[in-house]
Design goal:
Radius of gyration: 17 Å
Order of helices and strands: HEEEE
Length: about 90
C-alpha cells in the first residue's frame, strides 16, 4: 500500500475527470463488446510470475473469446483486458 493522498477537487474537476475517463475507455474499446454472448466453456490460467489471469472461453456458437485479469491494482481482481474475440481463431468451425 502507498500513502497516496489525492488532491481535493471541485465538483467541476471531478466531473471533467470522469468525462475524460469515459472517453478514454471508449477509445480503448471497453464498450465494444455490447452483444450478449453465452459461454459454454471457460478456462483460467494464472501466470505464477506476473499474477495475470488469462481467461479463454468458447461461446455456444463455437467462437473463441479471451480476456485478462490482474491483481495488485485494487483489493479485488480487475480486468486488464476485457473479453474480445480471438483474431486468430476462424469463426466458422
Amino acid at each position: 500500500m502507498t500513502d497516496f493522498q489525492p488532491k481535493p477537487q471541485t465538483p467541476e474537476q471531478v466531473d471533467e475527470g470522469l468525462r475524460n475517463a469515459m472517453k478514454q475507455a471508449k477509445e480503448d474499446g471497453v464498450f465494444d463488446m455490447t452483444e450478449r454472448v453465452k459461454f459454454t466453456y471457460i478456462t483460467r490460467t494464472i501466470c505464477p510470475r506476473t499474477g495475470v489471469h488469462y481467461l479463454d472461453a468458447i461461446s455456444d456458437k463455437g467462437e473463441h473469446y479471451m480476456a485478462q485479469m490482474e491483481t495488485g491494482v485494487e483489493k479485488w481482481i480487475t480486468y486488464k483486458r476485457v473479453w474480445y474475440k480471438d483474431p486468430q481463431q476462424p469463426y466458422d468451425l
